[in-house]
Fold each of these.
Amino acid sequence: MALINRTILITGGNSGIGRALAEALQAQGNRIIVTGRKTDSLNAVLAANPGMVGYRLDVMDPAVLTDFPARVIADHPDLDTIILNAGIMETEDYTAAPVALDVAHRTIATNVTAPIELAAALLPHLQTRPQAALFTVSSGLAFVPKAGNPVYSASKAAIHSWTQSLRHQLRDTSVRVHEIVPPLVATELTPGQSQVAAAMPLDAFTQEVVTILSQTVIPDEVLVDRVNFQRRAEADGRFAAAFATINA
């Protein structure tokens, strides 16, 4: 099940972790399809990576989200791997009066509803492939939340739970279900995040993840060493301390 010589769709592959994984996995001999909401950044990725295919996909547009799965399957019938990476992270203030809910609505639509809809539309095709894989992308904040980003943290906890159920339901099919769990990584997911000293360098994160994805047996959860601070906090009895560190 190593991700070598596969046809891989990566949503949100026009920037950050998505782009880094797209480029690294293409270098491993995979055929890569990326989506992106912003045309300029999507075109920049395609220009820099000959052979990569791209689609503009705004998951906040219901019509586009509905039409995309059939289009990508028709164009790429050998599609056998999906990485549901696209996501947003914005701050919220529940001490405000009134509390604005626009961020919550966008976050749930992008981080939860869109992956569920894409998976539902693409899984029937994946199950026709002899070997297939679906990857979700959650976050270390699914396990120890950041209080300034409550709905983002909750959305990733929801993705973690949903992934576990999906894996169980698909256990007797040809589709393996995995979850990539990033720690804080030096990208521009939030403004200035790439300059945060505590963030894991993007190239180091990508190298560690791709090494795991190149194994003959890929674990259910793709965990770089650094994310275990959050992933294992509750099991190790460190949750309160980890929460205090993240929310200092």
Amino acid sequence: MTYKARTLDLNLPVLNAINPSNECQIERGLKMITEKSRNKIGIFGFSFKAGTDDLRESPIVEVIERLIGKGYDLKIYDRNVNLASIMGANKDYILNRIPHISKLMCQTTEEVLAHAEVIVIGNGDPEFKSLLGKLAEGQEIVDLVRITDQVSQKGKYDGICW
């Protein structure tokens, strides 16, 4: 949309502010994760929004890519994303951003929970609300979408504030 606005010589400040704002949120989420100083990360929900397999422009894909680049050990779960069934631009997008994504994906929440020291909630799938009660000793949650109204608890739950 910003490209089209520029071609029409339109100045749309609100529209032009979206990308910098999104980048700020990605940086904020990344900082919340990396400040935990733990290497094994479990990502729950990496599609653009709950209930869809659309990965294009999903901010959590950017977070995943940056965590991989920093050497973090990731496992990912999203019941709506099946690489064998996504196609077209959606498939091209994810395979160009994270070519080995299939090696990181798990079939169950239990697989990711068994791996992770830090659990990251990346979209608002209602399934993820139950994760709060499934944490093992020492595991922490970073909630990037405010799946719950729970208040942040040092050493256990850290939710992004708006």
